[in-house]
Amino acid sequence: MPHVITQACCGDASCVYACPVNCIHPTPDEPDFGIAEMLYIDPATCVDCGACVSACPVGAITPGHRLSETAARFADVNAGHYPDSAPGDARFPVRQEWRLPMAPISKPKRLRGAAPDELRIAIVGSGPSAMYAADELLKHTQVTVTVFERLSEPFGLARFGVAPDHESTRTVTNLFDEIARDPNLEIRLNTEVGRDISLDELRRTHHAVLWAGGAPTDRPLQLPGVDLDGVQSATSVVGWYNGHPDFRYSAPDLDTERAVVIGNGNVALDVARIFTADPDRLAPTTIDRTALAALRGSAIREVVVVARRGPEHAAFTLPELIGLADGPARVWVDPAELVDVDASDVADTTIAAKIALLAEISQRPKPDEPFIRLSFGYTPQEICGDARATGVRFVRTGTDEELVIPAGLVLSAIGYRGRPVPGLPFDEATGTVANVAGRIVDGAEPLAGLYVTGWIKRGPSGFIGTNKTDSGETVRKLLADAEAGALPRPGGAPVAV
Ligand SMILES: Cc1cc2nc3c(=O)[nH]c(=O)nc-3n(C[C@H](O)[C@H](O)[C@H](O)COP(=O)(O)OP(=O)(O)OC[C@H]3O[C@@H](n4cnc5c(N)ncnc54)[C@H](O)[C@@H]3O)c2cc1C
Ligand code: SF4
Ligand code: SF4
């Protein structure tokens, strides 16, 4: 039976290069890679060799016959990506260079041209984009990397964002630990660039600085009533249950029967799942212990995740919806909110699969409390209440029909945005450091020795593994500049912090 990719897939594409028969798509050089919600194995051409399993950093691939009940649906999801495939499919020719070895073993490389004998790189941030960049850089024998991280623990949102019940996804930090063991890599924790050390100092003491500081700010919810007690961002709740030091004092008030989450991306689902989970199931995870104690005393019976548009525009991904529908979470959709959509009218297979699964959920009996309700087609107008939130007033999108959902806790989950970085040019329109393929630019002019990667380079989209391809692009530019002699020469030894 062919192998199957499941929910934890974070898109780093290691499996693509491990597969000897080119049956995992989209590959990073195919156009839909950037928008894919996961990668898929073609069951007609998979030869069941298992090479991809060990290449996957998050344990997302499993032989079809070992699929758990909760992941069974992923066999169809993988096959659905290749509706007409058959062995020897001409669209996906077996590439000779991928045949052997099964998993590429990269040999240390030496930079050529005008590259210096020792190439000193500073990376700001230690999230996924930083660690993938460091990995790529350290394949070259002349390179030494120093990573500067403001927090006392490394790995950014892989540690402080990913939900604690996504244990498989969190194992990606084992890969980052492995990268961090490289003797040419040093990580300096508790060191904020711009506070404990300046960007100028880094530039003076390194050939290049690679900014990988992420895009940590919420898009602000602009509604009357957002300043009431009981209204906060989903980000602050994520930080709270993951023990992020910035959100130690962001405990949500759980002494209410209903919470409303505005926005329906994967982060909204994460928060809804954690709020409605059995605390005993969360106890063995890395969830913050204070948060766990608070969740044990929670009065929440229902979390309503509300989207402005219909299910055909749902922001959550199909793998996350499957995880919600078939896992331990209790979830429900009002069938009345799905009457206007029909999966068979939708050409996009992923969107059609989401609609079909939502329709299936809507036919289930309403679950026991506490449960999650996914709601579609309501535009928020105001948060009601005097000092505290008491509910949210919506209108049915495109109509005047009003609806008030009573709730003592209101969370905004409408996306992220990068903050300007002092000393670096910023593109206000995209909320990113201005760059061309990772080279930081001022207008059209590249700034020698300055590079950017990750969410602050391309905006807050994509999965953990998406940063691997992104960082690969930036590192290629940096190394090309090194070989062309285009990097400034550092003036002195690295400063002590
Ligand atoms: C709540 C949430 C849940 C997610 N869950 C998943 C998931 O389940 N699966 C998945 O594939 N993807 C998930 N993602 C997406 C994934 O986390 C991101 O794609 C990825 O973390 C982006 O990497 P990054 O390196 O650009 O930024 P980050 O991970 O944000 O890392 C940036 C790092 O830079 C540090 N930093 C910032 N400024 C400075 C400074 N001045 N000096 C020193 N250090 C600094 C920060 O402290 C941080 O450690 C999630 C995202 C969020 C927000
Ligand atoms: S089991 Fe082998 S053939 Fe099948 S997807 Fe994995 S690497 Fe490719
Ligand atoms: S996480 Fe990476 S290696 Fe694992 S299945 Fe997804 S793309 Fe393949």
UniProtKB/TrEMBL annotation:
Location of the 4Fe-4S ferredoxin-type domain: 1-29, 37-66
EC numbers on record: 1.18.1.2
Annotated keywords: FAD, Flavoprotein, Iron, Iron-sulfur, Metal-binding, NADP, Oxidoreductase
Pfam families (UniProt xref): Fer4, Pyr_redox_2
InterPro entries xrefs: 4Fe4S_Fe-S-bd, 4Fe4S_Fe_S_CS, FAD/NAD-bd_sf, FAD/NAD-binding_dom, Ferredox_Rdtase
Gene3D superfamilies: 3.30.70.20, FAD/NAD(P)-binding domain, NAD(P)-binding Rossmann-like Domain
Keyword Cell membrane: no
Positions of transmembrane segments: none
Coiled-coil regions, chain positions: none
Cofactor: FAD
Catalysed reactions, semicolon-separated: 2 reduced [2Fe-2S]-[ferredoxin] + NADP(+) + H(+) = 2 oxidized [2Fe-2S]-[ferredoxin] + NADPH
Entry protein name: ferredoxin--NADP(+) reductase
Organism: Gordonia hydrophobica
UniProt lineage: Bacteria, Bacillati, Actinomycetota, Actinomycetes, Mycobacteriales
